[in-house]
Write a structure and sequence with these properties.
Helix content is about 15%, strand content about 25%. The chain has three domains: about 160 residues, Sandwich (Jelly Rolls); about 140 residues, Sandwich (Jelly Rolls), CATH 2.60.120.380; about 240 residues. The longest helix is centred in the C-terminal third of the chain and has 23 residues. It is an alpha+beta fold.
Length: about 650
C-alpha cells in the first residue's frame, strides 16, 4: 500500500551531526586521573574522548572480556570499545532474523504486514524541504491505535551539495599539532574540498623514523556556519588503523571517530560558528594528550606491525541533505528504526523536539530474543515515548537512495497479569554465566561472605539487605510512580530474605547479588543479559559481583571501601552503593543504555571508570556515608560517548512504560 504524504510545518531543531565518540573537553584539557590510575596523559585523553586504548580484536571477531554495553566494568582501559561495536554489527543481521522468526506472532498482531510504504515528497535531486523537524514530512495515520498502521517503510534519497575535491599536497613534517597544522585550502576563496595522501609514522615522533611517541598529522580548514564538514580516511594498504579528532582553535575537542567503515574513520560535523577547525589524523592506541604539543603521544605500544602507514584523507565543507519524518506516538509506544541503502545515520527526536537517540551503528544484537524491534541496518535506533504527539525520525549521512523500517509496539505487559517482579537474590546461586561470556554453570557466593570486607558483621546482614531493598525500591519503583508518567506503572520488588524464590515463573527477572570474577568467569562488577527497550523479555538475569566492590580501600575507584573513612556510616553507604549498582543492572534489562559518567548530571545508568564515586552517591566531600551523599536517580543524561550514540537518554522514561499492567 502506498500513501502520498503532504509536508506540514511542526517546530524547532535540526539534526546535530556530531559523530559518535565525541566528547567535550576544555581548551588544552587533559583527562583527570582516577584514584589508583597509572595511565599516561595520552591514554587518559583517549579514554576521555571515548576512544579505547585496549588491543583491538580483528574486525568482526569477538573481543575478550564482557560486553561493555551490558557490563559495569571496573577498568575501561581494558575494554575494546571499537572491537565490540564492530562485533555487534557483524552479528546484527543474523540476530535480527532470529528475533523476527521468534516474534512473528507479536509482529503480526501489533505491526500489520505488508508495511505501508511512505515515499519522500521532497523533489528528487533537491534538499531543504524536510531538513529539520519544523519542516518534517508528516506521516498521517501512523500509530498503535485502532485503524492505524504502525509498520512503515520510508523510501527516500539524500541529495547533498556537490563539492569538488582537488588534490592538495601534504604539509611537511612536523605537522603534529594545532600550531603546526598543514593547510588544506578549504575556506580560502571558493575551495570547499580536498584530497590529501600522506602517512602516519614518517615524522619526528613516528616509531620507525623518530622517537616513537606517536606521529600525528594536523590539518587546518575554515568553514562557515551552516555547512557540514565531512572528513574521512581510507587505508587501502598497510596496517594503519586511523582515528580522527576535530578541534576548535583553543583545543576544544568537538568530534572524534574510530572505525566508521572497517578500521577507516569518518567525522560528519555541522558547523554552528564560522571559523577555523583543526583535524588530527592519528593511529588507534596513540592520540595526543595535548593538541598543542606534537610530542605529547604516549607511544603506540608493542603491536606488530605498528599501526603506521599511508592514508588518503578526503575533506569537504558543503550542504548536506537531511530528511525528517513526523509520526504521532502515544505514551508507552516503543519505537524501533533501521536504515539501509546510502544513509549511515538514523535518529529520533521527541515532542520538544530534542534528539533522544541518534545512531551510526547497529547494536541491535544486544536486544533479547523476544524483542520485536528491527535490526540489521547501517544504523539502528529505538525510543520509548513518554508524551503524546509528533515525534521525528531523522535520516542523514550518505548520498543516494535509502530505506527506513519504522515499527512501533505497545508494552508487552500492558493489561497482563501478573505484573513484573524484580527478585533480588542475596543467598548465592548457581547461574549459567555462559550467557554473559563466563564459564557456564557457576556457584556464586552469597552476600554474607563479603560483609567483613566492608567492616560489617553477620549481625549487620539483615539490616543491610533491608536497606538495599529499600534503595532499589526507591530507585525502580517509588521514583517512577512519583514521575506520574504512567498511571498504570506497576512492579513488585522481592528478595531472598523475605520472599520465596520465584525466578523461573512468569514475568520474574532477577539480580543475583554475590559471587566473584573467579567464580563467574566474567571480568566485571555487574552485567545484564540484554538491553530491552519496552521490556519485551520479562524473565532475565543480571549479576552484581562483590569482589571488586569489597576490595581494599584505594585499590580501585570501583571499591566501596575507597570512599569509607572514620566519618562514614558504613552500613548506610554500602547499602546505598549496592542499591545503585543493582538498579543500574536492572535498568539495562528494562531498556537503558549507559550514560556519560563525565557530564554534570548524576544518573543511575552512568558507566563506571572515573565515575564510580558518582554512581555510588558519594557527595562533594569525597567520603561515602556522610550527610552530603547524592541521591542518584534515573533521568535525563547524554549517552556514553564510547558506545557511539548521541542525544539525551531519558533513562526513567525508557523504563516506566515497560513496567506496567
Amino acid at each position: 500500500m502506498r500513501r502520498s504524504i503532504a509536508t506540514v510545518s511542526a517546530a524547532v531543531l535540526g539534526l546535530a551531526l556530531i559523530t559518535p565518540g565525541a566528547a567535550q573537553a576544555g581548551p588544552h584539557a587533559l583527562a583527570p586521573s582516577a584514584p589508583g590510575s597509572d595511565l599516561s596523559p595520552a591514554d587518559q585523553a583517549s579514554l576521555a574522548a571515548g576512544v579505547g586504548i585496549a588491543p583491538k580484536a580483528p574486525y568482526g571477531a569477538k573481543p575478550k572480556g564482557p560486553n561493555p554495553y551490558l557490563a559495569e566494568v571496573a577498568d575501561p582501559a581494558k575494554v575494546d570499545f571499537s572491537g565490540w561495536a564492530n562485533y555487534l554489527k557483524t552479528q546484527a543481521k543474523s540476530k535480527a532474523a532470529a528475533r523476527d522468526k521468534q516474534t512473528k506472532a507479536l509482529k503480526a498482531a501489533a505491526a500489520p504486514k505488508p508495511a505501508v510504504v511512505v515515499d519522500e515528497d521532497e523533489l528528487p535531486g533537491t534538499s531543504g524541504g524536510n531538513d529539520v523537524p519544523v519542516n518534517a514530512q508528516r506521516v498521517t495515520g501512523y500509530g498503535t491505535g485502532a485503524n492505524q498502521f504502525s509498520n512503515i517503510r520510508i523510501l527516500g534519497s539524500l541529495d547533498n551539495e556537490v563539492v569538488g575535491t582537488p588534490t592538495v599536497a601534504p604539509a611537511p613534517e612536523d605537522n603534529g599539532s594545532i600550531p603546526l597544522a598543514g593547510p588544506t585550502g578549504i575556506g580560502i576563496g571558493t575551495q570547499n574540498g580536498a584530497v590529501i595522501t600522506s602517512q602516519i609514522g614518517d615524522g619526528p615522533h613516528g616509531r620507525q623514523t623518530g622517537d616513537g611517541s606517536n606521529d600525528f598529522d594536523f590539518y587546518k580548514l575554515t568553514a562557515p556556519a551552516g555547512k557540514v564538514l565531512t572528513l574521512s580516511t581510507a587505508t587501502p594498504t598497510g596496517p594503519l588503523d586511523t582515528v580522527l579528532q576535530l578541534f576548535k582553535p583553543d583545543g576544544t575537542l568537538v568530534a572524534v571517530n574510530d572505525d566508521f567503515s572497517g578500521v577507516d574513520s569518518r567525522i560528519v560535523h555541522r558547523v554552528t560558528t564560522t571559523g577555523d577547525y583543526y583535524l588530527a589524523v592519528a593511529a588507534y592506541g596513540g592520540l595526543p594528550a595535548d593538541p598543542f604539543d606534537s610530542g605529547s603521544g604516549g607511544g603506540i605500544g608493542d603491536t606488530s606491525p605498528p599501526s603506521e602507514g599511508p592514508y588518503t584523507l578526503t575533506l569537504t565543507s558543503g550542504g548536506v541533505d537531511e530528511d525528517f519524518y513526523a509520526i504521532k506516538l502515544r505514551p508507552g509506544d516503543v519505537l524501533g528504526g533501521a536504515v539501509t541503502g546510502s544513509a549511515t545515520f538514523l535518529t529520533v527526536y521527541d515532542t520538544l523536539p530534542r534528539e533522544v537517540h541518534g545512531s551510526r551503528q547497529d547494536a541491535s544484537s544486544i536486544y533479547p530474543m523476544d524483542s520485536p524491534l528491527p535490526g540489521g541496518g547501517n544504523a539502528v535506533t529505538d525510543h520509548v515515548a513518554t508524551q503524546a504527539g509528533w515525534h521525528y525520525i531523522g535520516v542523514a549521512g550518505g548520498s543516494g537512495a535509502y530505506q527506513v523500517k519504522v515499527e512501533a509496539y505497545r508494552p508487552v505487559l500492558q493489561g497482563a497479569k501478573p505484573q513484573q517482579t524484580l527478585y533480588l537474590d542475596f543467598d548465592g546461586a548457581r547461574v549459567n554465566t555462559g550467557v554473559f561470556g563466563g564459564t557456564g554453570n557457576s556457584d556464586l557466593s552469597p552476600l554474607a561472605a563479603f560483609l567483613t570486607r566492608w567492616g560489617l558483621t553477620r549481625a549487620d546482614e539483615d539490616e543491610l539487605i533491608d536497606r538495599v531493598v529499600a534503595g532499589v525500591t526507591e530507585n525502580i519503583k517509588n521514583d517512577l510512580v512519583a514521575s506520574g508518567l504512567n498511571p498504570k506503572f506497576k512492579v513488585k520488588i522481592a528478595n531472598s530474605k523475605d520472599n520465596a524464590d520465584t525466578f523461573g515463573k512468569a514475568n520474574v527477572s532477577r539480580v543475583v547479588v554475590g559471587g566473584t570474577i573467579d567464580e563467574s568467569g566474567v571480568d566485571t562488577i555487574g552485567i545484564a543479559q540484554s538491553i530491552d527497550p519496552g521490556n519485551f523479555e520479562t524473565e532475565e538475569t543480571a549479576l552484581v559481583l562483590l569482589d571488586v566492590l569489597s576490595s581494599p580501600a584505594g585499590s580501585t575507584p570501583a571499591s566501596l571501601n575507597t570512599y569509607l573513612t572514620g566519618d562514614s556510616d558504613r552500613l548506610a553507604f554500602v547499602a546505598q552503593g549496592l542499591a545503585n549498582v543493582i538498579s543500574h543492572e536492572a535498568g539495562h534489562f528494562f531498556g537503558d543504555f549507559h550514560t556519560d559518567n563525565r557530564d554534570a548530571l548524576p544518573n543511575l545508568m552512568d558507566a563506571g571508570g572515573t565515575g564510580f564515586a558518582t554512581l555510588f552517591g558519594v557527595g562533594p566531600d569525597g567520603v561515602g556515608g556522610t550527610a552530603d551523599d547524592l541521591d542518584v536517580d534515573f533521568g535525563d543524561s547524554t549517552f556514553l560517548p564510547a558506545e557511539g550514540f548521541v542525544g539525551t537518554e531519558d533513562t526513567l522514561g525508557r523504563i516506566v512504560f515497560g513496567l506496567t499492567s
